[in-house]
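Hey forum,

I'm writing up a methods section and want to include a predicted complex as supplementary material. The small molecule is zinc ion. I've pasted the protein sequence and the SMILES. Can someone with a working setup run it? I'll credit the forum in the acknowledgements.
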Amino acid sequence: MGQQLPSAVNASELDRSQHLALAIDIGGSKAEIAVIDAHGTARTLAVKQPVPFGQDGRADPARLIELFAPHVVEAQRLPGQLDGIGLSICGNIDPDTGEAVLVPNLHWRYLPFGPMVAARFGLSVYAATDVRMAALAEAIWGVARGVRYFAWCTIGTGYGGYLFLDGKLYGGTHGFAGNFGHNTIDEVDGYPCGCGRRGCLETYVAGPAIARAGQAALDAGRSPELSQICTDGRVVTHMVFQAATAGDPACRAIIDEVVRRVAIGLGGVVNTLDLDMIVVGGGVAHGDPELVPRINRKIRDYLMTVEAARDLRVVMESLPNSALYGAAADVFIRSGVLELETG
Ligand SMILES: [Zn+2]
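Reply by user p_vandermeer:
Happy to help. Structure tokens for the complex are below, copy them as they are.
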């Protein structure tokens, strides 16, 4: 194990409940919104709203921002001090400027979304990519508290993560470190990837890949369970898990292959970086409670050292939505209310 770190704060215990952030996690189809205090306690019920899209297929930033307005009013009515708005966004975000550099799911490119939100509400706004926010929340309030070296990993519609190294978030030269879902597996025969290339690991393990493999099994008449579950002939990811749980051999093989490929991929990350922990979240990970424990066992086949095999833990995210909580943590850290100590 690495050294344990104290999770220190600037504000006293008494002060922390007085500090509030409006946390917003914007995914490809829904935005989740809650007021969270500096203890990491939600002070309002988290609300999910559909992201409004325009005729052109782009997420409409002005209409999206108006969805936040009643929550800003609610946050300002609560006792305490609203330190700002934290925005967790499912794409590449410049954390210094709040600009959405590239958000494929929302069809945003070079959109100054953070400054737009700040101008609308007259509050400090702190924006960053969702995986960075999730890693931050787990480091300050979650299962990775006190862990010096870990990775966050999302298995959902996409596959990727963020790194926390030597007690700090690690973004690399451009802030895009942790994109291990786009490591190439097969550039010749692989599937096209959302990043514009071919054969990335994501195209083998994320939700759409699981649905695609299930669809192929159904269409080939190899999955009796899917032919029962799937009444309209269109397989979605959760059906494959459901069929696998019911013992369908073809669907079990699909999930086995996801576990194997994720274990190989994350095993390579651990061999490179010698991590203590990998924290896993995302819709696919939540879809099957056995998935993460299976990855935790399987990864040991691909670790180089006995020390890593002994000490590494692959665990499920420990907060209801780590990215949402991270959006709040980011407000408190960047406004000086909380501090991550590097030991
Ligand atoms: Zn890719």
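Some notes you might quote in the supplement: The CA atoms of residues 118 and 125 lie 6 Å apart. Residues 249-273 form the longest helix (25 residues).
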